[in-house]
Specification:
single chain, mainly alpha, 29 helices
Length: about 650
């Protein structure tokens, strides 16, 4: 029956639902949000509807002859779509009655809860993958059967009725804070990002980055780094950054001599760091604001210097890699830059200062994003090529809605996990376990926490990974004396790095689709290039001045400089090259300097500066002497079997 429905009908349906999702967000951003039960239920309903309309469209377009398997698939999609509509719609239609019962669940609502869980998990499977589904299912099973586990993990036991009441009707379940953040803050900013991309603002940023670095050694790789940091202000998601900047930067890197795996790895790391770059950052930053009861502006300010340090160290890694591999400069026509054109199109970036200035003046994220969207719409009409016609507005809405879907579903699924953690108290047990295993030693606790975040975050969007680890392990760091904001930023960084950590590395897989390299090799190389990202959280935990909290500007400047120096020293030690190849003693010396820079005591910083300075002087002098003697120096040129650098 569905096979006879034209694809255009599905396209119209997707456009209408996407427009409703965007319109709901913009309307409530200006006029004020609806009560939580209404806002969040409508948001989840529209997100799941888009998933299943898209799935039906894919089946119909691929179905030349209707077979039994295809028919069963269509029937299943229709069933879960109906189930999602009924169970979320129940919250909307019977909102007052549910509130009057104060969370007491009825027998038919238990069935509704189970149906919604099945629908939600199926939608997550289709859009995000199995990891979040498996994790949520494990936690629900723990809630049901945890009473039978050994002491230390066991709880008193909860019935299906109690668990479904917590997940379906409770404020800490599916419709809890994470989904609320997606329904309000995140969607508004995602709409702004989609509009900036559609109007061409993203291309302006990438052209600027390419022009700025095009004639440097390893210029295309540096363009990927700079471009991804700028694009992070718009999209705030690793995979989206890869797919936006990668098609430009990866071919340029390949052309200049980088291996396909190296090109993909650099793009993956640079795009992952985009989630740290204010003012937009990623969805996890908005969730952090709710979890820590801290204003988003405070979080953005605290994250700014660590983000700059991350990209500064990454640029250093890219530069030393270019020196090590003897990557030539690009001096052909492809490296020329039409600065006049970039300046002429820079008006498309006007929404960004509107967004930032409103945040600085104390306006909410939702209202700031609303007026930034309005500004973007206005400037789009300055050029016929970027003007948002009704057709283009629908296309922008679809782009934004599909960017929201993974976040909304991940937040809803993560809400199940949080609901069980809250109900059973397992979060406190987990935190106690981390403290116990570390023996109360902060360095070991930090390493255990990062490892836990990397494992739990594998295959998850950063927002969902952060929700999980912030609930389970961040309290352990706070118990050990780490500041609340520093602890949450630490687990955010660690969860974010799961995007490049093997075996499940979403950003690496996205980069592999462009570079045609081996995804696992790209992930391994990404961890090497992203070494600075792994180090940055330790820097601001041991030196909170990097977060700019209750310190003087002199302390901030000194901490900022020494953190970059430490990251660069570690990069040199890892790659084994400065201006010339290093011997083992020099590499160990730079590694020692990096460790010394990690300490916030000025005496250690001074000693580290002396060690690093002496090694730099020795390397330059040694290399210059060899150049005089041999005429070549010690810069290595490393070739692959394919003849690539």
């Amino acid at each position: 029956m569905l096979s006879a429905v034209p694809e255009k009908v599905f396209d119209w349906a997707i456009g209408i639902v996407s427009a409703l999702l965007v319109s709901l967000t913009l309307y409530t951003a200006y006029f004020g949000v609806f009560p939580d039960g209404l806002q969040r239920s409508a948001h989840l309903l529209l997100a799941m509807a888009l998933v299943y309309i898209g799935a039906l469209r894919a089946l119909v377009s691929a179905d030349g002859s209707s077979g039994l398997n295809t028919t069963l698939q269509k029937l299943w999609i229709l069933l879960v779509l109906a189930g999602g509509i009924v169970t979320t719609g129940h919250h909307i239609v019977n909102f007052d009655a549910i509130n009057d019962r104060w969370g007491e669940i009825t027998d038919y609502e238990i069935v509704f809860a189970v149906v919604l869980l099945v629908t939600l998990f199926d939608a997550c499977r289709r859009t995000i993958g199995w990891p979040i589904v498996i994790l949520a299912a494990i936690f629900i099973a723990y809630g049901l059967f945890g009473a039978y586990l050994p002491d230390g993990l066991a709880h008193r036991g909860y019935s299906l009725k109690r668990i479904t009441a917590q997940l379906y009707l409770g404020g800490g379940g599916i419709f809890g804070t994470p989904l609320g953040v997606s329904a309000t803050f995140v969607t508004g900013v995602v709409v702004l990002g989609a509009l900036l991309e559609k109007t061409g603002a993203g291309q302006v940023l990438m052209d600027f980055a390419t022009g700025l670095t095009g004639r440097m050694r390893g210029g295309p790789a540096k363009a990927a780094v700079v471009g991804s940091s700028l694009m992070g202000m718009i999209s705030g998601t690793a995979v989206a950054n890869v797919l936006t900047t990668g098609p430009i930067s990866i071919p340029l890197m390949r052309k200049s001599g980088y291996r396909k795996e190296a090109a993909g790895a650099i793009e993956a790391v640079a795009s992952t760091g985009g989630q740290l770059m204010p003012p937009v950052m990623g969805a996890a930053a908005f969730i952090m604001a709710e979890f820590t009861a801290t204003s988003y502006l405070t979080i953005a300010k605290a994250a700014f210097l660590p983000a700059v340090i991350f990209y500064a160290v990454l640029l250093a890694m890219v530069h030393f890699e270019a020196v090590k591999r003897n990557i030539p400069l690009l001096r052909d026509a492809d490296s020329t830059t039409d600065w006049a054109s970039i300046v002429k199109r820079s008006y498309l970036l006007a929404p960004l200062p509107v967004f930032v200035s409103m945040l600085l003046n104390g306006y909410s994220i939702m209202l700031s994003s609303f007026w930034a969207v309005v500004a973007s719409m206005i400037v789009s009409y300055f050029s016929r090529g970027s003007a948002q016609t009704p057709r283009r507005m629908v296309e922008t809405a679809v782009t934004a809605a599909y960017a929201v879907i993974p976040v909304a579903l991940a937040c809803a699924a993560a809400g199940c996990i949080i609901g069980i953690i809250t109900l059973t108290g397992v979060g406190l047990k987990f935190s106690t376990l981390v403290v116990l295993l570390s023996g109360g030693q902060l360095p070991l606790a930090l390493m255990l926490t990062m490892l836990t975040c990397l494992i739990l975050g594998m295959g998850l969007p950063t927002a969902a990974a952060y929700i999980l680890v912030a609930t389970l392990v961040a309290p352990a760091l706070v118990d050990l004396g780490v500041g609340l904001l520093a602890a949450h930023l630490f687990v955010l960084y660690s969860a974010m790095l799961s995007s490049i950590t093997p075996p499940v590395a979403l950003a690496a897989y996205a980069a592999a689709s462009i570079s045609q390299g081996n995804p696992l090799k790209i992930a391994v190389l990404a961890c090497q290039f992203g070494m600075g990202a792994f180090a940055v959280p330790y820097f601001f935990v041991y030196d909170p001045a990097l977060l700019g909290i209750d310190v003087t500007w002199v302390q901030v400047v000194v901490s900022f400089i020494t953190a970059i120096a430490g990251g660069v020293s570690a990069s040199i030690a890892m790659l084994g090259v400065l201006a010339y190849r290093l011997n083992i003693i020099e590499r160990l010396g730079f590694a020692l300097a990096a460790v010394l820079f990690l300490n916030s005591d000025w005496r250690y910083d001074a000693l580290a500066a002396i060690v690093a300075g002496a090694l730099v002087f020795w390397n330059l002098r040694k290399g210059a002497a060899e150049e005089i003697t041999t005429g070549t120096g010690t810069q290595p040129v490393e070739k692959t079997s394919e003849g690539e650098t």
